């Protein structure tokens, strides 16, 4: 399993893209988390306009095995939720770093404890 080098990662197994010119970043869950969950059958994502706080629950993913909380890796305002994932939650399993992204957030505060790809790989292996 390889974690894209250009992303940053939380210890709750979310990934975060680099911010664009408007300060917006994309959030998803890692391949490691998707594999641990099993087949995702339902996604409850934060709504556009919702405020999210780094480390706090902002949604949930339900799989055939369990229900897992979704955590915000940064603080900010949700500007887009991935309707494709709501309609077809299996995208989280089949394309966690591409079409299976979860939401986009305009960042107001970014924690210092996000991991690089190599740090996350070591963390998730331990």
UniProtKB/TrEMBL annotation:
Residue span(s) of domain Lipoyl-binding: 24-106
KW Phosphoprotein (keyword) present: no
GO cellular component: cytosol; glycine cleavage complex
Keywords: Lipoyl
Keyword Protein biosynthesis: no
GO biological process, one term: glycine decarboxylation via glycine cleavage system
PROSITE patterns in the record: BIOTINYL_LIPOYL (PS50968), LIPOYL (PS00189)
Necessary cofactors: (R)-lipoate
Modified residues (N6-lipoyllysine): 65
Cofactor binding mode and count: Binds 1 lipoyl cofactor covalently.
InterPro entries associated with the record: 2-oxoA_DH_lipoyl-BS, Biotin_lipoyl, GCV_H, GCV_H/Fam206, GCV_H_sub, Single_hybrid_motif
SUPFAM superfamilies: Single hybrid motif
Subunit structure: The glycine cleavage system is composed of four proteins: P, T, L and H.
Family the entry assigns: Belongs to the GcvH family.
Function: The glycine cleavage system catalyzes the degradation of glycine. The H protein shuttles the methylamine group of glycine from the P protein to the T protein.
Name this protein carries in UniProt: Glycine cleavage system H protein
Organism: Streptomyces cinnamoneus (Streptoverticillium cinnamoneum)
Upper taxonomic lineage: Bacteria, Bacillati, Actinomycetota, Actinomycetes, Kitasatosporales
């Amino acid at each position: 399993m390889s974690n894209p080098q250009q992303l940053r990662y939380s210890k709750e197994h979310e990934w975060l893209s680099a911010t664009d010119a408007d300060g917006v970043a994309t959030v998803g869950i890692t391949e490691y988390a998707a594999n641990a969950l099993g087949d995702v059958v339902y996604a409850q994502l934060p709504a556009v306009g919702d405020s999210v706080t780094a480390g706090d629950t902002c949604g949930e993913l339900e799989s055939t095995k369990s229900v897992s909380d979704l955590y915000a890796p940064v603080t900010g305002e949700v500007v887009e939720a991935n309707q494709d994932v709501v309609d077809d939650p299996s995208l989280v399993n089949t394309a966690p770093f591409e079409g299976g992204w979860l939401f986009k957030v305009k960042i107001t505060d970014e924690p210092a404890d996000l991991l690089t790809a190599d740090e996350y790989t070591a963390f998730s292996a331990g």
